[in-house]
Amino acid sequence: MSEDKKIIFSGVQPSGIPSLGNYIGAFKNWLLLQNDYNCLYSIVDMHAITVRQEPAALRKKARDLLTLYLALGLDPEKNIIYYQSHVSAHAELAWILNCFTYMGELNRMTQFKEKSQKHSENINAGLFTYPVLMAADILLYQTDLVPVGEDQRQHLEIARDIALRFNNIYGEVFKIPEAYIPKTGAKIMGLQNPSKKMSKSESDSDNNVIYILDEPDKIAAKIKRSVTDSDNRVIYSPDKPGISNLLNIYCALTAKSIEQAEDEFASKGYGDFKAAVAEVVIEELKPVHQRFKELSADKAYIDEVIKKGAEKANYLSQKTLRKVQKKVGFPAKL
Known about the structure:
Tyrosyl-Transfer RNA Synthetase; globular
């Protein structure tokens, strides 16, 4: 890693293939980051097991997500792409940080309250201490910047609090991370529920979400079935959330302005407009699909990326972990 570049850490759970909303809102911009920052992309499978998982499915989702990162264009020579569970320092540091985190702080975490309601049959200790593991993820690499949405901002704040508390006792051990507000694409909403972001959890219908690896026919069908209204005018307006969302998708992938798109479809109806949106989405994702298939077939290459990613992350993480262990008084390893 280049010493003159800041470090960005991003952890994503392997909960399934990301959506078009993730692609437009985040992934397209990740390709720009790899030239200006030292980036670590962790597939946080340890976080994933706070909810019961089917083991074979979790392994496949994790591998598919790593493969997708490569298919999107992330260079494993420029970025560290790895499984969280392959770097034991995450768990080791999390235990130490647990001893510097207060119950009251964890009780205030809104995500714990929300997930406890959603998974009331499995309110486990891991769910409660999830923010401490997340703090360990970030602090382990002396991270400068963490891309966060509003739902994760509280977790970054507790990571900062833990780091400051530790530093106040033992000196400048951890770098205090800052939120990174990336240049995001348009916020993409659900096709069936355009008042909420594009997410399977916001609708019972699979038609609400376009997944990055959806086949072309499926993409076209989902866009054709997307919720609109009855007046058949392609204009951007608060009282036309469905059409406005499709305009956002179209403009994000064509680099046209909303005004240009409105002019383009001024004399056309929703049928023509939806067909055009489907075409640009399919064309945009076609090279990703092709590259994903090629990479998935090359088991040896993916295995090598996994192995090297873990080696690089382990090497970096041990620097911080050894320092922390010494500070708290653990005996040196002989």
